[in-house]
Protein 1
Amino acid sequence: MTTLPLEPATVSSASASHTWLRRIHSGGQIVETCPDWCTDTHRNDESGYLDDLQHGAQFDGLELAVFDAEHGTMPMPVLAGRINVDPYSSDSRRCVPHIHLEPFQGEVMECLTPNEFAAAIAQVRAHCDRLEAVHAQLMKARAEYR
Ligand SMILES: [Zn+2]
């Protein structure tokens, strides 16, 4: 393991990597470097067990205005998530970059591979096509409605 002077973790510009010294509870220390796409602050990652570390970047979902008895409507995030990697995980699905997709708030499709994520995207896209057909049906129904 490499030793470096102990300095507070620094976050540099988006394209530069974040590197810091991390103390491992089971002994030793290790220099960690974020992948370019990681936007985690790692504020609480100055020490920990080796496999506690994750790198990741959240992505926002779209917000749909759902009925709320008190407020009329409330924004409900749909299809948010996180690209993530657990670099020291013994789980082969987690130690490579993967997606945690939240189809709706509070629910998660964990640890999607690129193919699984592509399949989910295709499902959503196909459903939007069906919704377009329903929209056309609604327009026709309204035009004919008396
Ligand atoms: Zn990171």
Protein 2
Amino acid sequence: MKTLLSSFMMVLIFTTGFSQKPDYKRTNTSKQYVRKNATSPSAKADLDAMADAFEIMRSIRCDAGRSWYYQGAIHNIPAKIIGANKLCALYETEKDKLFAWGDCTHAVKTDTLAKEKAALHFLLWHRLYTWHLEKIVRKLSCKEDFAIPFWNYGSDIVDENRLPSQLQDPTNALYEQSRYSLLNNGYPIDDSTRMDIGLQLNSLATTTPFGGETGFSQILEASPHGLMHDYIGADGKEILWNEIYQDSMSGLMANVPSAGFDPVFWLHHSMVDRIWWEWDNSEYGSRPTLEELKEYPWEYNFIEPNGDEITYSLEEVYAIVFDPDYTYEDVEEPQILAEVQSPSMPTSLKDAFASSKKMKKSVQQGGETLLWKHGFNRVIGNKPFKHLVSKDNAKKTIKHFKKAQPSKLVLRINVVVYKEPGHYFTVFLRYKDQPDKYLGMMTFFGVNHHHGVQHHHSLGEEGAKLSFAYEISDDLVDTNDEFEIIINKRGDSKAKVTVETMSLSAIN
Ligand SMILES: [Cu+2]
């Protein structure tokens, strides 16, 4: 307790000089547009306008920047189309790409630096991408106050977990047949997935800092972002006709190269953007600096509402992204799920700890000490996968937890997959006789893509090795007692997920 108290004092001293947010925060306060909750009556006019615009966009030639095909291809496009491309004759393979096609941040290879670099731009790039589509729709629909509604999935109001009616109607330009039939038939997201998303949103709200493997951006990208891509695209659940690939496989949204072609993409990414927007405006929010973006540059190419091409410098990106011309409609706050707080860490201390983390760089490259590591080579079955952390390792963990300079304790679960799984996993930490603490999820959207694999092929004999990281500093209790790590399989698909190792590191 003494050490905790002294670190609390240090944190206090450290933070007082920085109690104001840096002044790059909002300079221009003109918020002209309001993005509305897609399933509320207030969004109806915007969804109708969007349908009008998509009607036009679907009729425009694929080499015209404002067409539905062109806009979808900006996100990504299959490396090769099977047979003659019925939707866009000029595109057969990657060499036929037009300006800005295939620019999304999911399109990276496996090396860590490239991943880190793309991850830093994930939210920024998608904000500009949706913002440009929004302006195009505004122009084509002639609805001057149009803004892209957000789909508020994970809400504890069950009806908000249904697709908006326009998207379920086969005669509407926002319809796409290649989606999970449950959603297209008007049912809400199933209860267990909906509640898992709720847990994830709750935990994301206090995740810090912006970047890094346990930071807000990558955690949000995994879920609900990646989870919802797979869920909407019925990955592992149904075989659908994917008209972008021209093949039977999972739906448009479940594959990075076809995701941008499903109109629900925009409502989904409006939601992802809103989750970020709320976090950015909260006390936990932080931003990458312009210098960091420049260290890890990315291309920003889009289409203007009049059809012109536009390329942004990173300075321009920064100015637009952190002062958007829209805001989000208020929705009822979801009920915060009660979480047991560690008895040794009072709320005020927890907050102080959080704000000390906030000051750190958004991409962390601190020193790392491995505290323990355990090998398994075990497939996660239908029963929960449990690992009891030994007394010795629990002691090592808590010793670091109590250090005067709190280091970040990161649990890593290293898995191997031979085929992209369509299901996901939830991860919990459990002390005997205490409620489980939610650590996060393992999701797999984009694994094939990141590994340069075409959809029907396996990931080779080696498989794809993936690492999932969870910061557990806030979930530990001041005790030498053993604790368990529990992984629950959610949903099913043919792909097996094998846990190779689990480890805990202290990162300074
Ligand atoms: Cu996405």
